Amino acid sequence: MQMVRIRAVLRRLGEILDMMRSILAIGLLCSAAFAVGAARAAPPSPDIIARGHSLTDAADCASCHTSDPAQPFAGGRRIDTPFGAVYSANLTPDRDTGIGTWSDDDFYRALHDGISPSGTPYYPAFPYPYFTRLTRDDVLAIRAYLATLKPIKQSTPPPNLIWPLTHRAVMRGWNLLYFSPGTFEANPQKSDQWNRGAYLVEGAGHCGACHTPKNFFGADISDQMFGGGEIGGWFAPRLDSAPRSGLASWSADDITEYLQSGRNGKSHAGGPMAEVIVHSTSRMSDADVQAMAAYLKDLPAGVPEPAVTPPSSHQMADGANIYNGACIACHEADGSGSPRVYPPLPGNANLQSGNPLSTIRIILDGAETVTTPRAPNTGSMPAYANKLTDQQIADVATYIRNAWGNAASAVAARRVAKARAQH
Q: What is the 3-state secondary structure (H, E, C) of 259-279?
């Protein structure tokens, strides 16, 4: 009988020990899970946030996602397209109207695949066809920086687009035809600097979004990359090595100076590019801007420049008379101007673009030289929209596009009238 009791006690003690082992195991698992969760919840390091900040500058997020300078990144800015208008999203960490409730996967999917957290596709006015090249680590660094911003409650107006683009599902077909998601892959035949520049130009900087012509559906014409394109009533010039209208005459140092200061000895930034300089490239590190310049300088000439038929002597003479009366004081008789104050005109790549829209725009509206930390002095050109007729602007534009060794197509008065009506 005594032995039976002893065995029962021992059995009971064994059950208690087994229970304690189970409790201990559960405790260890919970501790491990807690540790993993704590590690995941740990805030990003200052280095990651700083990297995200620099990439946000490189992507020029502030320009598109700010409608009120007092509320940066709160979205609501109207972006006009050939198909209507869209409005930029709120990128602040506000939980109701911004991205405060987004997960890392939500944010990465938006930039890499162009798909919102709800599963609907974005319109490519949001340049996800370029952002898809960013690495996941860089995308999440951008998210880490945006999370440090002040939350601002501001809803985004709905798009105002033509039918059938009012239905976002249409974009699934567009993506099938024109969007190839994929992270940037370095070219082992090129230097680290070149690859860094390619990564920034083709990815975060999304330079091709403006500087590449589009087809009827608003997609890049892939065999004309960096061949120049119309954007917002301006013409973004070629970035390849085309001899007259590209960057063949620019050195890598010229490109670097232009991106950092908004001007160099050959040209000044105007129109949408001026905004890019102020909010993006002038804030980037020297190494990153130099890398972009190295990549751009290495781009071969793409499609041939259009053949130029010399303008009539009558139009050149009329243009010269207008130039001598309105332009010579600043740009000099020989067009040399005052580099970095009044841009020189001979050999000017922008002037010789196949599309004269930017030249027309500057003559109509005037120009104000952007100021940056590297170039704080200002310069300006008056507007001539109320001083010259369409024909006179066409004549003087034709003259400066063909004087001093320049060569470009003549400008017609109807082209000026169309540009005038756009603003």
A: HHHCECCCCECCCHHHHHHHH
What is the rounded CA–CA span in Å between residue 208 and residue 213?
A: 9
pLDDT of residue 208: 96
- For residue 100, give the H/E element and its range: none
pTM: 0.87
How far apart CA 85 and CA 160 sit, in angstroms, is 5
Q: Are 73 and 65 spatial neighbours (Cβ–Cβ below 8 Å)?
A: yes
| Model confidence at 23: pLDDT above 70 | no
pLDDT in tens, 240-266: 999 999 999 999 999 999 999 999 999
Residue-range domains of the chain with CATH: 46-178 (no CATH), 192-297 (1.10.760), 313-422 (1.10.760.10)
Highest mean predicted confidence (pLDDT) among 6-15, 126-135, 153-162, 374-383: 126-135
Q: Which of 157, 156, 164, 176 is CA-nearest to residue 83? A: 164
- The residues with which 79 forms a beta bridge, in sequence order, are 86
User: Which amino acid belongs to residue 249?
Assistant: S
- With a pLDDT cut of 90, the percent of the chain lying above it is 80
- Report the distance separating Cα 63 and Cα 127, nearest Å: 13
| Nearest-angstrom CA–CA distance, 400 and 352 | 9
CB atoms within 10 A of CB 309: 9
Distance CA 202, CA 132 (A): 10
CB distance 268 to 337 below 8 Å: no
**How far does Cα 82 stand from its chain's mean position?**
18
The C-alpha R_g of the chain, in whole angstroms, comes to: 29
Q: How many CA atoms lie within 13 A of 354 on its CB side?
A: 14
